[in-house]
Design the sequence.
């Protein structure tokens, strides 16, 4: 079975980052994504001397390599200074590459 | 720690694909999977001139490489013509390979 | 965009494993994780002659390679004998490596 090498960008962020993130996905040309709620404990909580749980959203976006670069650049510049957020990238193989 | 190279197949599809997908997992010999609901925006929605959100299920199946090939082939042939669906594959290392 | 090579550890386990797992994450020095509920069918269920669905939690932990080794060792030794659990590891690239 032929698969196409692409990038899965996973972003874990505060729920109020949702609207600007969705706008960013459209701007960079991402053709689709999924989002689901997660509980998270992170280094953010350590600032208060503990590790409180809080509601987050996990976004998963499948994009071509060039779009991944652009998306990560924009996250670093425009989102990380303002939002508690983590982003990582995974190499994947995709069926139906025409959709992305 | 020894891990075993395996494949993680992730499938995002409409909720009504659930029963036939579970049947497929059994047929190809996948020994287990997880499923959870996600919101999705995809190229499917663009056909209507917008990007409406809709309810999807995200399936994650861990299989050996040969089973992954078989599963992806069957998805392409039997599911993609009929269902709005995306599938991708990731290389992973698994503990407890005897379970798969 | 510079990303840092790290490991994503995914653990699917019974809900009552949550408290000891969270304690383990802290012990090995994992700085954060997400958790969300999933339905699972696994080889565990086959022991009863069927594949019943049951409630599980999926944990995702981002750690450096050395911490991943330690975490997987501890899972194998201290958790797998007692809990129905699956763990796998994926190579990822992370922005904001200072958080982990």
Sequence:
């Amino acid at each position: 079975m032929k698969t196409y090498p692409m990038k899965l960008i996973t972003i874990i962020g505060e729920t109020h980052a949702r609207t600007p993130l969705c706008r960013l996905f459209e701007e960079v040309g991402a053709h689709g994504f999924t989002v689901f709620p997660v509980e998270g404990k992170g280094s953010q909580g350590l600032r208060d001397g503990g590790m409180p749980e809080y509601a987050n959203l996990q976004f998963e976006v499948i994009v071509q390599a060039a779009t991944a670069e652009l998306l990560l650049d924009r996250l670093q510049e425009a989102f990380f200074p303002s939002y508690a957020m983590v982003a990582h990238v995974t190499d994947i193989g995709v069926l139906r590459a025409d959709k992305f």
